[in-house]
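Sat 14:20. Reprocessing the chain from the morning session after the first attempt stalled halfway. Input below, unchanged.
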Amino acid sequence: MRAKTMTRPKRKGHRALALLCLFCSPVLLAETLAPVDQRIGSEGSLKIDFQRHVLPLLSRAGCNGRDCHGSAQGKGGFQLSLFGYDFDADHKALTKLVEKHGVARADKDNPAASLMLKKPAREVAHKGGKRIEKGGWQYELLLRWIQQGAPAQNRQQRFERLEVAPAEIVFRQSGDTAVLSVVAVWADGTREDVTPLTRFQSNNDGVAAVEATGRVTARGAGDTHVVAFYDNGVAAVPVMQPLPGKSAHAVAATTVDRHIQTKLAKLGITPSKLCSDEEFLRRASIDMTGTLPTPTEVEAFLANTRGDKRARKIDELLQRPAYAAWWANKLCDFTGNNPQQQAELGQELASQWYDWIFRRIRENQPYDKLVADIVLATGRSEGQSYEEYAAEMSAYFRASKPADFTGRPTMPHYWTRRTMTKPEDKALSFAHSFLGIRLQCAQCHKHPFDQWTQQDFKQFTRFFEPVKFDIPPAARETAKQLAAAGSATMNMQSMMMSQDMQAMAMDGRVVPWRELYVEKGNRPELKLHLLGDRELTLRSDEDPREKIMTWMLEKDNPWFARAFVNRVWANYFNRGIVHPPDDFNPANPPSNEALLDHLAQGFVASGYDMKWLHREIVNSHAYQRSWEPNATNAGDERHFSRAVPRRIPAEVVYDSLAQIVAAVGELEEVRENLDRRAVGHLSMRMAGTYAMNIFGKPARATNSDCERSADPSLLQSLFLRNDPIMQGRLDDGGWLRELETRHSSSAQPPRAELEPLIREAWLRVLSRPPRTTEQERALAHFSKAASTAGGMRDLLWALLNTKEFILNH
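Finished this time. Tokens:
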């Protein structure tokens, strides 16, 4: 059986063809040509193809790699396209006259004297060293191509897909080997074994190593993928070596668990036991709402004896405003909401952006609808004049009773950032935000580990060319009149708001605004491929974004739903099923394809119900497992056999400090008042502050999920030990002031009074009661403290500086 790659997104017709390739009788398939290294010596009339044979051979030899002639400057005056993405340029580079040598690198008049033979064979000096043997099949292949006139590629041929056999490798022990074979399939039905022309790479040499010939050798227990590269095809083959012995049986409580357990059984991994109720409540509260549970909530949950109390708590957390607040933060991460990237009124626009998303999550608007209202956003509503639009926008910014921006049907600020001025910028951001793919490499050359070519990127970029943020030419005179009516000036070059116009808007007057619009009627009809998919026709009178949105919502779209469910999964497990979560590509396959398919298909079937997705994940045993490893899963972070401790997010750290020291009567208000919380409406005001930066809140300045960091650092430790913010919380906390008032004398309260206070301290900071030994140590400390409040301040400081507080476990 063969592992296949699609060089384009999988569609229904392709899947049927894939099934045919897997299950049909071989006699029904086209004959597979033998490898060219076998035919070169026996077939004197063998035609050498530039695209099928020459360029892949140069890639296999490393000639067009980034450290050789594929670099931006080339090497030794000779440049090839990186990884052979530009057939025409490479053919020209090989066949044009080299003035320094007086001959072409492919010398058709004297083929044996060609530099493209003599240099890699080291017949003449070559800084790249010896790459081929004179007289070997590689040498003979290049020589024969030159002898045949060094023809360019056949423009009619189109590479279809790559098939690799075996489809999966399961080793029994280290040292075992298996050999891969690779078949290229072309659109005309031609099938050719291209194993000797294929590049191979192991994603983890510690598990499996692969030789240039395709021989894979087991190195150690675990799993990885060996990736094959040929032409525009990329195929990944799973390689596993289970741990010795048999894994213990674990109950698959949900469909999620069944898919995970199937993979764990193959690897010989036994999952960890379920976590305690205290651990579950703290973990779920942080992950779902960005909030620590209160002492009262912890006590009630521990006292609850219902068998379904965890499922009921999950439903309760999904109803809280803090759930909408935290996940609005996350969606702002994905979509790049950064106050510094707005040309004017950055904080106000960023807050509107956050609030708009918050409202829709609070109302549980389907994800596809939420995204469509961002993707298809415009400044003006249908039928709205420019004057009416200017009045609407001005109303959102007046100081007295501003209009509610969240009531707008669409949210245009995604498109109005300074980093979205060029079509290329829009294409990169869009691919990252809504598809979870990285197109940066394809701006300049063929993506080294993905299917994207520079042509794919250029065509995708064309969809965004008509999307403008400006004052439309037809409205500019009206805009000047509005500015003049308030005695304000307007820069007609940049169309940006001046300071006096911003002040006018705050004062309640109508001022001109730039708007998001789609330029129509002034461009030719285009025929474009949407990220390598079928050809689409773009008329001059339509919004190209509608084509993209329709395509994303097609049932078999390979990215839209999968990208979102993968990001949500990564929030709960600190690792995506595809990881990094924004790097979907054939060389970075899912660690559990069946699991990702289940979640994506279920999400779509639910009507893109985000709460369905959260329930499906958090109700699983996989999510509820302990962080404590067993003998089989101590090194596992890919297959979700245990919880992996990770630092709590920046916003949660900041808010927790206020919640932990809040007065008893104010604790709920501090927790629920989202206007005063970093995970809530204070989020955009806190962006870029010292506390947020050192604990890893992303600046949202680049198209990368890795901007949000959970890595520990020395600065974080120093912050928790002696930062003024930390000291201020402990000095001014309402609960500590209450203790000062209640226990004003220096006399130590009796044990019966101290024990409940110590218990509450543990519940506030660590969301669990103290153990007996911990309680005794705390009591001993209080016996030496100058005051009860002083002793509690020390105790809270100590608890806040534990790993148990700073880690979500």
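The chain has 33 helices and 20 strands.
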